[in-house]
Write a structure and sequence with these properties.
Elements: E1 2-6, H1 11-20, E2 26-30, H2 35-42, E3 47-50, H3 57-61, E4 68-71, H4 81-86, E5 90-92, H5 99-114, H6 117-125, E6 147-151, H7 155-166, E7 170-174, E8 185-186, H8 189-195, E9 198-201, H9 215-220, E10 225-229, H10 238-246, E11 250-255, E12 275-277, H11 286-305, E13 312-313
Parallel strand pairs: 1-2, 1-3, 3-4, 4-5, 6-7, 6-9, 7-8, 9-10, 10-11, 11-12
Antiparallel strand pairs: 5-13
Helix pairs in contact: 1-11, 5-7
Length: about 325
């Protein structure tokens, strides 16, 4: 059996993958930019280990032996599920494997924005840390006493809830299903945006959630609030977001995900000093890789044995 990982894997990622792969599984790693090699390798591939690069109908059609698309992560919006189903290709994801990493990155981005860490680091390295502009720290603050709005209430926000509470914040959430056991108060998205000082996104990208935050949404935000997005870039109308950041409706944003990835160098967000950006790596820790690769190899084993898969996506 052959598997292809389409990702720019680090040496440590490659080492961990080789260590867990069984003898009967040939694993090939192809960087996303090498389209020609990827096309060649997919001709005789049984399993695609999918990270971020979209799996289109064309990719599936050019892989006649493909039996499984194994998402390394949770979101399957980058997979053409209808094309996979039509070709008889199974799709599986791995909920929970990256929850701790993404929760911690959410906090890291929030602190970076709230305390202007990137700005302070640059100023200190340039010898200007002790001669900052007089108003440089007028807009920093603490989490304590603020209201945090969690959009979605899956595993990641549930991990964040007790952390925010311990730091002295009030937490509200919105989700399709109310959780009677949740300590946080449920409210509608409209209400959440008006009462929250910090809004953090934790929902999948679907046709229903695309641009769920847009110009009208940002107009209803508390003035001076902060947006954190470690979910999917398409949830946010980034033109409207940039406008809200420029005019002060939002004090800042921390983004690990963008609508277009890689983010163009001259994108409207890159020039804004009140934005902290990361290249969709919230999930990527050694611990996440270990958990993820165990699930991926188990599903390869089950596929080979004709057994039911873990976390198979059905449409």
């Amino acid at each position: 059996m052959k598997a292809v990982l389409q990702y720019r894997a680090s040496p440590e990622f490659a080492r961990r993958l080789a260590a867990v792969a069984p003898d009967w599984l040939q694993v090939t790693i192809v960087e996303e930019v090498d389209k020609a090699r990827f096309a060649r390798e997919m001709h005789d591939t049984d399993v695609l280990l999918h990270a971020l690069e979209p799996v289109t109908a064309e990719v599936i059609a050019n892989a006649p032996r493909l039996k499984l698309i194994q998402k390394i992560g949770v979101g399957v919006n980058t997979i053409d599920l209808k094309a996979a189903a039509a070709a008889g290709v199974k799709v599986a994801n791995m909920p929970g494997t990256n929850s701790q990493a993404v929760a911690e990155m959410t906090l890291a981005l929030l602190f970076a924005v709230l305390r202007r860490i990137v700005f302070l680091d640059a100023q200190t390295r340039q010898g200007q840390g002790w001669t900052l502009p007089l108003d440089a720290l007028d807009r920093v603050g603490e989490i304590a006493g603020r209201t945090v709005g969690l959009v979605g209430f899956g595993e990641i926000p549930q991990r964040l809830l007790p952390v925010f509470e311990a730091l002295g914040a009030t937490v509200v959430y919105t989700a399709r299903t109310r959780r009677p056991d949740a300590r946080a108060r449920w409210c509608s998205l409209d209400e959440l945006l008006t009462v929250s000082d910090i809004v953090s996104l934790h929902v999948p990208l679907t046709e229903q959630t695309r641009h769920m935050l847009n110009g009208d949404s940002f107009a209803s935000f508390k003035r001076g609030s902060i947006l954190i997005n470690t979910a999917r870039g398409g949830l946010v109308d980034e033109i409207a977001l940039a406008r809200a950041l420029r005019d002060g409706q939002l004090a800042g944003a921390g983004l690990d995900v963008m609508a277009s990835e890689p983010l163009p160098a001259h994108d409207g967000l890159t020039s804004l000093p009140n934005v902290v950006l990361a290249p969709h790596v919230a999930w990527l820790t050694p611990e996440t890789l270990d958990r993820s690769l165990i699930v991926a190899m188990e599903n390869c084993k089950r596929l080979r044995a004709g057994q039911p898969l873990l976390n198979e996506i059905r449409i």
